[in-house]
Amino acid sequence: MDVDFNSAIGVLVPLVSVTLGIGMIIVSILVKHRRQMQELDNRHKERMAAIEKGLDLPPDPLTEQVKAVRRLDSSGPGSRYLLRGLIWLGVGLALALSGNFMGSGYRAYGWIAVAVGAAYLIYYALEGRREGPPPEGGGPRT
């Protein structure tokens, strides 16, 4: 049984690259999770030591992050429709225009996605005119 070396390498390269790629993703997720758990544990120990000594608690970094996220999200719920519309429109155009390469079946799905994206963009445009500019305080709209 004579195995060609080039064909064996041709099979091994994709297998090794996919395996190592997935392995890197898993390791990065685990490292990130472990780092977050260590940060939470250190923050807890620091706050407990401050409470035991009767000191003022240091500012909570998680509260600051939540405030920053709320400031970024102060543009209101209408911006979600803009994002959804642009994503659907982009995916739809990509499918519709690449129908020549992938076959005609995907072209119909592309135009459906374009219609959904256009509907989201129209809704965003109409709701944006109705709501007006965002409030000054950065708080939620009522």
Describe what you observe in this structure:
The longest helix is centred in the N-terminal third of the chain and has 49 residues. 79% of the residues lie in helices and 0% in strands. The protein is built from 5 helices and no strands. With 142 residues, it is mainly alpha-helical. The radius of gyration is 26 Å and the shape is flat. The C terminus is likely disordered. It folds into 2 domains: 58 residues, no CATH class; 73 residues.
Name the poorly predicted regions: 138-142
Report, as a whole number of angstroms, the end-to-end distance.
77 Å
Structural class, please? Answer: mainly alpha
Radius of gyration: 26 Å
Q: So what's the overall shape?
A: flat
Write the layout of secondary structure elements.
Elements (H helix, E strand, L loop, with lengths): L4 H49 L7 H12 L5 H20 L1 H4 L2 H27 L11
Helix pairs in contact: 3-5
For this entry, give a set of tags.
2 domains; mainly alpha; 79% helix; 142 residues; single chain; disordered C terminus; 5 helices
Describe the structure concisely for a colleague.
The chain is mainly α.
